[in-house]
Amino acid sequence: MKEKIHPVYNEVRVMCACGNNFATRSTHKGDIHLEICSNCHPFFTGKQKLLDTAGRVERFRRKYAKSDAMKTDAAAKATAKEAAGAKK
Ligand SMILES: [Zn+2]
Question: What binding details are noted for the cofactor (predicted)?
Fold first, then answer.
């Protein structure tokens, strides 16, 4: 092999949020952290439900609840304005 043109190809540890981990080799520096792997992905497990170990679904729900509240707030304001306009 020609020197100084090849990236380092060391052994790395791959860790999934489901707890599965295995070793492989990669030019990636340091360990690799995954949200999903072949051990927990629905395609491989055959189960529909996704394991939410990293709290991603929870975070999404929180974000959505916030925007939903804003929408209902805006809708309430709009109906209040309409009601006020109808009175005149
Ligand atoms: Zn996994």
Answer: Binds 1 zinc ion per subunit.
How far apart, in whole angstroms, are the C-alpha atoms of residue 85 and residue 88? 6
Between the CA of 33 and the centroid of ligand 1 the distance, in Å, is 10
Of 78, 24, 18, 77, nearest in space to 49 by CA:
18
Distance CA 5, CA 75 (A): 62
Number of CB atoms found within 10 A of residue 26's CB: 15
In single-letter form, the type of residue at position 1 comes to M
- Classify 1-54 by CATH class: few secondary structures
Q: Please say whether the beta carbons of 36 and 54 come within 8 A.
A: no
> Tens digits of per-residue pLDDT, 31-65?
999 998 998 888 888 876 655 666 777 788 888 88
Q: Are 54 and 15 in contact (CB under 8 A)?
A: no
Please check if 81 is assigned to a binding site. Answer: no
Ligand 1 centre distance from Cα of residue 51 (Å): 9
